[in-house]
UniProtKB/TrEMBL annotation:
Residues 319-451 form the 5'-Nucleotidase C-terminal domain. It comes from Lygus hesperus (Western plant bug). GO terms for molecular function: hydrolase activity. Residues 488-518 are annotated as: Disordered. This is 5'-nucleotidase. GO terms for biological process: nucleotide catabolic process. The gene is nutA. Coiled coil: none annotated. Belongs to the 5'-nucleotidase family.
Length: 518
C-alpha cells in the first residue's frame, strides 16, 4: 500500500484509527517508507516502543503558493482511538496519549493567528471521548475575535481530521472566523456540508468517490491605513459535470479579513466510476496492482465455500446502512457453530466491501472481510429484554456507523423499524427469557459505545474473561466453510472436526430471506 501511495504522490497525510492495528516497529517502518509529510497535531508517543514515531511526524506544515499566499495544515485523530486501544489492551499501559481533538485543534488554530495569550474560556472544546451522536457535543458561543493577528500568521488554515461528523461540525462552529476547510475521514460515507461558512469534505471509503477542492487566492488592494479592500467577485465558474457528482458542489467566497488575499473555494465530490475512463493510466501503479493480485492468487485464491444460489446477490457493500444479506449469512454460520439462539455482529467488523457475483468465498475473502486481530467471539446467556434494547440503540444511534448491529436470519422483527422482536430462533420472543447470545468480546467491553452491550458485559463480569478463551471469528468461519464445502461436487455437508461451545450443526445455514421482516 505504501508503494502505491508513494506513486500517487501526496503532500500531506494524517493518522487514522487503524494505523495502530499493527505493531509499532512495523508502523515505524511504513512511515519511514512513506514519502509524504505526516501531520500529527494531537498524538503523543510516550513509551520507548512508540517514541520513534515522534520524529516521523510534524505538528503542522505550511504550504506557500507561487503568489505568496500561505496555508497552514494540521492533522487530528479522534481521541476515541485511545479508548478503543485501551479496551483491546486491557490493563497494559498504552504507548500513546491522544489529546481531545476539539480542545487541541481550537487552541492550535487560535494560537496560530492570535498568539499564545489568547483566551479560550468561552469555547466548549471537550466532550465524551467516545460520543458519536449530535446530542453529545455542543459548541461554545461565538466569541468576539481580537483584531490583531501575529506577524507570521498564515493566510488560510486547513484541518485534516479523522473523527465523526458531529465533532467536525463543532470544530467549525468554534473556529468560524479562522478555519477555512476541513478534509475529514472516519465515516465511510461521503459528506459535503457548509457549517458557519466552512466546507467539511469527506469523500467516503474504498476510492468510490474523490474530493476535489479549488482554492483561488485573489490579491486585495491595500488602503492607506494598512487595511485591505474587499475583492468584488462578479462571476465564478468551475468545471463540474453533474453526472460525475453524487452531492451538489459548493462555491464560497472567504474574505480572510487579516490577509491580503480573498479566497474563492469550490468543493465537489466526484464519482470515480465515471472519472476512471477519463484518467490517464500510470504504469507504475498498474504494476503494483498486478503484483498485489499475483500475491493474492498465489496465497489466497483457494475457494472455501459457495454461497447459496437463491437469486440473491451477496454483498458486503453498504453494510453499515441497514440489514444486509451477506452479514446475515455470516451470522447464520456462526450461529450453527456456536449453537446460539442469536448472533450479533457489528457492521464495523465486516469490511470487504465486495459483491460476490460468482458466489465463491476464498481464503483471502475471509481475511479481507474480517481483517482485525481482535475478533474474539463470546457466547453468553442474556435476557430478551437486553437483546432487544441493544438492537434498539443500534437502530437509533449507529446507522451508517461501525456499531450498527447485524443479526442472523432467525431474528424476526415486528416491522421494518426493527425496534421490537417478534420471534427469535423460531420461537415467539420473550423479554424475560434467557437466550444463548453470541457477540464479539470487544463490544461487550465498550467498543462503539453501545451502553446495553456494555451492561451485558458487566453483568457477565466480562473483564475477567481471557481473550484466549474465546475463538476468533475468522477461525470459526474457515472451520465452518471447510466442513460444508466439497468443491461443488456434492450437496452433502461434512461434519467439522472442531466445534465451539457446543456441537456445530451438520446442516448449512438456511436460505436467507423467508419473507418475514428480518
Amino acid at each position: 500500500m505504501v508503494k502505491a501511495l508513494n506513486e500517487i504522490g501526496f503532500t500531506f497525510a494524517c493518522f487514522g484509527n487503524h494505523e495502530f492495528d499493527i505493531p509499532y516497529p512495523l508502523l515505524e517502518k511504513r512511515l519511514q517508507e512513506f514519502k509524504t509529510t505526516m501531520l500529527n497535531s494531537n498524538i503523543e508517543f510516550i513509551l520507548p516502543e512508540s517514541e520513534p514515531l515522534n520524529k516521523l511526524c510534524v505538528p503542522y506544515a505550511t504550504l506557500k503558493l507561487p503568489n505568496g499566499a500561505t496555508i497552514r495544515f494540521f492533522g487530528y485523530l479522534t481521541e476515541e482511538t485511545q479508548e478503543t486501544l485501551q479496551i483491546v489492551n486491557g490493563n497494559k499501559p498504552l504507548p500513546l496519549n491522544i489529546l481531545p481533538v476539539l480542545d487541541k485543534a481550537t487552541k492550535d488554530i487560535q494560537q496560530t493567528l492570535y498568539g499564545d495569550d489568547y483566551d479560550f474560556s468561552n469555547f466548549t472544546t471537550t466532550s465524551d471521548p467516545i460520543a458519536d451522536t449530535d446530542t453529545n457535543v455542543k459548541a461554545g458561543p461565538h466569541t468576539p475575535r481580537v483584531s490583531q493577528v501575529v506577524p507570521d500568521a498564515p493566510d488560510a488554515i486547513v484541518a485534516l481530521t479523522h473523527q465523526f461528523m458531529p465533532f467536525d461540525r463543532i470544530l467549525c462552529q468554534n473556529n468560524y472566523e479562522e478555519l477555512n476547510l476541513v478534509l475529514g475521514g472516519h465515516e465511510h460515507d461521503p459528506f459535503l456540508e457548509i457549517v458557519d461558512g466552512i466546507n467539511i469534505l469527506k469523500s467516503g471509503s474504498d476510492s468510490n468517490y474523490c474530493g476535489i477542492v479549488y482554492m483561488d487566492f485573489i490579491s486585495k488592494e491595500k488602503n492607506l491605513d494598512g487595511t485591505y479592500k474587499e475583492v468584488q467577485v462578479k462571476r465564478i465558474r468551475y468545471e463540474s459535470s453533474s453526472d460525475n457528482l453524487m452531492i451538489p458542489p459548493t462555491t464560497t467566497i472567504i474574505s480572510l479579513p487579516h490577509s491580503p488575499f480573498t479566497v474563492i473555494q469550490h468543493v465537489q465530490i466526484a464519482n470515480m466510476s465515471v472519472l476512471k475512463p477519463l484518467l490517464k493510466p500510470v504504469p507504475q501503479i498498474d504494476e503494483l496492482v498486478s503484483e498485489g493480485r499475483r500475491i493474492i492468487e498465489k496465497y489466497g485464491s483457494q475457494v472455501l465455500y459457495e454461497l447459496p444460489d437463491n437469486n440473491v446477490l451477496y454483498s458486503s457493500k453498504d453494510i453499515r446502512t441497514g440489514p444486509n444479506k451477506f452479514a446475515k449469512f455470516l451470522c447464520d454460520c456462526v450461529k450453527q457453530c456456536c449453537s446460539s439462539d442469536i448472533v450479533v455482529l457489528p457492521a464495523g467488523k465486516i469490511r470487504g466491501n465486495k459483491e460476490y457475483v460468482n458466489r465463491l468465498i476464498t481464503y483471502i475473502d475471509v481475511l479481507s472481510e474480517l481483517p482485525f486481530p481482535d475478533n474474539e467471539i463470546i457466547t453468553l446467556k442474556v435476557t430478551g429484554d437486553l437483546i432487544e434494547r441493544a438492537l434498539q440503540y443500534s437502530e437509533e444511534k449507529h446507522v451508517s456507523r461501525g456499531g450498527y448491529l447485524q443479526v442472523d436470519s432467525d431474528v424476526v422483527f415486528t416491522d421494518s423499524t426493527r425496534k421490537h422482536i417478534k420471534s427469535l430462533n423460531h420461537q415467539l420472543f420473550d423479554p424475560a427469557h434467557e437466550y444463548v447470545y453470541t457477540v464479539p468480546l470487544t463490544h461487550l467491553k465498550g467498543i462503539d459505545n453501545n451502553p446495553v452491550l456494555i451492561e451485558i458485559g458487566k453483568i457477565n463480569d466480562i473483564d475477567n474473561i481471557m481473550k484466549d478463551d474465546a475463538p476468533l471469528l475468522q477461525h470459526i468461519l474457515v472451520q465452518y466453510f471447510s466442513a460444508h464445502y466439497d468443491g461443488g461436487t456434492s450437496n452433502t455437508p461434512s461434519k467439522p472436526e472442531t466445534t465451539y461451545n457446543t456441537s456445530c450443526s451438520e446442516e448449512p445455514p438456511s436460505t436467507l430471506g423467508s419473507g418475514e421482516v428480518n
